[in-house]
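Board notes (copied after class):
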Amino acid sequence: MDEDSAITIEYLRGLPEGAVVRWSTHHLSREEPWTSRWVDVRIENEGSPPFGWVWTIIGEDDPDGTAPEQLWQFVWPYDLHVHEVREPVRPPKVFGQPVGRWAVPRGGVVPEEVAVALRAPERHHVMLGGWSARSIGEAVSHWTATHAGRPDLRFSWIADAEPPPAVAQAAERAREIDEGGPTWDLGEGLVVADGLMDDLLAMDADERDELMKAFRELG
């Protein structure tokens, strides 16, 4: 078992019977209480493990998968299909930020809004597996019952929790772009503020790759 998961399990086992575990993620918002691709989950309780996130949930179709001993990253079935419509950007056949995103129950009918958005022939439609806030709560509850032996714990999504420092810093860099600051074009529709480029170059390579993955997901 990985050390981080062992710390989390010890923390969960030490909670009072029937305790509420408050969780958050920067992948969800009140406006869009669902996400796709993968989701990082934090525990917001006082005294919780001091990690940027405690769990990473991935889908059955994730190309990287997860290692058996790496408990903090695990597969959970999708309960949604997330539809994205994107506009093309330079170079040709590369598509930028979504002009629309819609979530429907897995296997549900394509929303009429998607059909309308696709009437422009140059637009690109992507359908992804996704999770609702309810499904994410069920995922971490199941993990806790399985690995910590605590099926009595209850999980509550905190939609207005403060984001992790790295995410907050990324939001500040995005504001710099909006205000006309210098930028770097990293390709595939991803443009970053000049200050963020300095941050990326100063990071450990693995940390930089993880943050770049998060940027492309949020884009």
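Comment from the instructor: The chain has six helices and eleven strands. Residues 166 and 211 are 8 Å apart (CA to CA).
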